[in-house]
Amino acid sequence: MRLVIATCSVDYTGRLSAHLPTATRLLMVKADGSVSVHSDGKAYKPLNWMTEPCTLVEAPGRWVVSNPKGETLTITIDEVHAEVAHELGDDPGLQKDGVEAHLQELLAANPGSLEAGLTLVRREYPTDIGPVDLLCRDPEGRAVAIEVKRRGEIDGVEQLTRYLERLDLDGRLRPVRGIFAAQQIKPQARVIAAARNITCVEVDYDHLRGLDLGRLTLF
């Protein structure tokens, strides 16, 4: 992990164009090569970012990050205030709390409670940035990725969005649509999900517990 605090401006070109005026920001370069730009606010996500696979080319006062899609993040650095690098090592991953983990199990056993006709392919379906909670197929055979949370917030939608991007690279699965499932989903999360064509479903944990738990299967 490499952290750089710098006064900089940022320009993104790709699916659209975006500009961050000059200000002091945190630049984060992870071991997987991804680059993100942070401010003191908006803790739930960076101001701008480029996920792997991407390439960082550094020159005096200028970073250029590009990916195979032709997107480019150009960071113009006026002054570096601090820089540190540290090896974090392997991460054990997120440990879900008891309710969230059990909710995932219940939905794996009863995917039709989210949408009629869904059948489970696998729990914890792997992607190169981590596993999506459930991968299912709908009655037409289309792949459906499901992220399960106890509380549905914006960061959960962002997480599912990243999984969908990675899953869509697999020709056996794409196009993959998403379902964001939680006991309660915040209005802001619903807005972001709708903009990304992700379906939101609020689930009743107590009702699911009352279903035939003998059908639960761990994958």
How would you explain this protein's 3D organization?
The chain has 219 residues and is of the alpha+beta class. It has two domains: 2-85, Distorted Sandwich (Protein Yojf, Chain: A), CATH 2.70.180; 98-215, 3-Layer(aba) Sandwich (Trna Endonuclease, Chain: A, domain 1). It contains four helices and twelve strands; from the N terminus they run βββββββαβββαβαβα. The protein has helices spanning 98-109, 154-167, 187-195, 205-209, and strands at 2-13, 17-29, 35-38, 48-50, 55-59, 62-66, 72-85, 119-125, 132-137, 143-152, 177-185, 198-202. The strands form two sheets. The protein has a seven-stranded antiparallel sheet, with no helix packed on it. It has a five-stranded mixed sheet with strand order 8-9-10-11-12, sandwiched between helices. β11, α3 (187-195) and β12 form a beta-alpha-beta unit. α2 runs parallel beside α3 (187-195). The longest helix has 14 residues, at 154-167. It starts with a strand and ends in a 10-residue tail after the last helix.
